[in-house]
Amino acid sequence: MVLVTFTSQEQLDPYRRRNDVPFTILLDPDRSAYRSFGLGRGSVRRVYGWRAIGRYVALFRGGRLRDLRPATEDTLQLGGDFVIGPDGILVWGHWGEGPDDRPSVDDLVAAVRRAASG
Fold it and tell me: Nearest CA to 50 among 98, 94, 96?
């Protein structure tokens, strides 16, 4: 498994600690890989819509606003999840429409298993 992120080299260690990433991280500071996979930027309304406001309210009510850290990256950059087969061919992809748009773990595991079995 590999994580591709556009975080800077300076932010890599704090990013790894903050997100507890146990696998290889590749840096894409100019976002060329993001563009290659067709990952654009979301609108302010989509990224900071009612769901995000609800999360901030829940953090506030739970006394956890102090857990928030200032953003160090482009918060509008959309992400995705992709499975590349052993032959280097994209076999499955999920192009996120917002920060909370992620595939299920079951879908990811199934895609990896299909890719591994050929």
Answer: 98
pTM for the predicted model, two decimal places = 0.72
* Structural domain for 35, as ranges: 2-117
Q: Say what the pLDDT of residue 91 is.
A: 92
On whether the CB atoms of residues 75 and 58 are closer than 8 A, the answer is: no
Q: What is the CA radius of gyration of the chain?
A: 16
Q: Are 82 and 94 in contact (CB under 8 A)?
A: yes
Per-residue pLDDT at 78: 92
Q: Tokens 């087969």 belong to which residue?
A: 85
Six-digit token pair at 35?
């563009």
**Could you give the number of structural domains in the chain?**
1
Amino acid at 104: S
Please tell me the distance from the alpha carbon of residue 72 to that of residue 11, in angstroms, as a whole number. 8
Q: What is the CATH number of the domain that holds 75?
A: 3.40.30
Question: Taking Cα atoms as reference points, which of 68, 75, 70 lies closest to residue 47?
Answer: 75
